[in-house]
Amino acid sequence: MELSDLLKGAAVGAGIVSLPLGFYLYHLKKQMSSRDKEMEKLKADSEEAKAESEEAYARRGTAIIRANRDGQISDVLGGKDWNINVRPGSAYGTKISDFISDIPELARDPEAAKCAIEAFERYQKTGEKVIIQYTSKDLTKPFSCDIEIIPKSKKGSEFGELHISKKDKYEIRARLEAALGKNVADFILSNPSKTSDKKIITILYTDLREFTPWMERNDTDQVVEMLDDHLTLMMDIGEKYHATHDKNIGDSAMLLINAPNNISDHPLVAFDMACEMLDAHNKEWIPKYRAKGWETREMGIGITTGVVMVGIIAGRRKIDFTALGTPVNVASRLVGVAQANEVLMDKLSYDFLDQQKKAQCTKKEGVKLKGIGSEIEIFSHVRNYQ
Q1: pLDDT on residue 192
Q2: Pairing of strands 244-249, 196-208
Q3: At CB < 8 A and 24+ separation, what contacts does 172-179 make?
């Protein structure tokens, strides 16, 4: 059957008769052209949606929320790492302020949610781009993100695209490690809701003998250089033994063993660490500066073991990971009376040592510790560097 016969048959079926063949061809082409345009539009929309989906996937750490100038949400893209679980179109018409407050990651930090809402309100007033870098002031719950409102228009309607991008977790970790050390950074990031607890740990203090008169006799720049070098050496050895560097107090370093990370034989570890610290001080630090003709100082160490309150104990804007309790005070007093190249420890720390190491220690009698009411049994280990 010829095409003309088919067209005429279709025309008769549609109630159109006795019209030229060109008429049928014209309308057929017009209909096919209309369908082609529809297919092209569908294809374009599909490609645009695919591109948006790929962009959203590529920016998994970014929540993308579209809303008009009235604050009504039209779409939510991406945000997989934000735990935003919404079906396409399900958030349509929701107020952006309500939606932001319910995002799990932002609900943990209300100030961040407030900041994002205020950013969108600025866009509503001006219609201009808004960029805010947000960092939580609460270091116990570290959170950092970039908030950006990008003005856009589509098919004659204006809307703002809110991008909330979490800072890389390594950036947050680096910030915490620089302030508090690796052990504490790990603790905070893995236990965001935990602050402090009672725990049996070992505390170690180092201290240079006769530091104050030595500092007064010597050039300040020399003292600072030598002290920086000494404390860095102590912290490096502490890190080797997985101890937590609590703080430096002048020329003294305070380290915690078994907090926050668990070390089963922590008193024995503290003893070995103390011996290595004394060895490094006498075999590396002292020869280095004596070779320059500079006056050096010897060191003593105090060690105690006991139950303390340990963890994040401070204000939210400046935090410390530290320990509080009688064992801390005793360790501080022990290092104060330790002689050059001497390790002083309480009985509980001594009891944890093996027989070989106990044989290297002697009980020290007649030592009074300032501010400590109860009698403390003290054991001494002296290292000889002659």
Answers
A1: 63
A2: unpaired
A3: 172/142, 172/143, 172/144, 175/142, 175/144, 176/139, 176/142, 179/139
Q: State which residues of the chain have pLDDT below 70.
A: 1-61, 78-91, 137-143, 155-156, 167-172, 175, 192-194, 314-318
Burial class (CB in 10 A: 0-12, 13-18, 19+), 85: exposed
User: Cα-Cα-Cα-Cα dihedral of 266, 268, 272, 278, to 10°?
Assistant: 90
- Which of 79, 196, 192, 100 is closest to 143 using CA atoms? 192
Q: How far apart are CA 335 and CA 327, in angstroms?
A: 12
| Max CA separation in the chain (angstroms) | 129
CA distances from 221 to 67, 224, 248 (A): 59, 5, 19
Strands (E), 80-226: 130-135, 144-154, 157-166, 196-208
Q: Where are the beta strands (DSSP E) in 52-125?
A: 62-68, 73-78
- CATH of span 59-167: 3.30.450.20
Output the CA torsion 306→309→314→316 (10° steps).
130
The reported pTM is: 0.62
Distance CA 156, CA 253 (A): 66
Residue 260, preceding bond cis, omega within 30 degrees? yes
Query: Domain segments of the chain: what residues?
Result: 3-42, 59-167, 172-382
pLDDT for residue 40: 66
Give domain 172-382's CATH architecture.
Answer: 2-Layer Sandwich (3.30)
**What is residue 157's predicted lDDT score, i.e. its pLDDT?**
74
| Structural contact between residues 374 and 343, judged by C-beta atoms closer than 8 angstroms | no
The tokens for 29 are 């082409």
**pLDDT digit string (tens) for 213-244?**
999 999 999 999 999 999 999 999 999 999 99
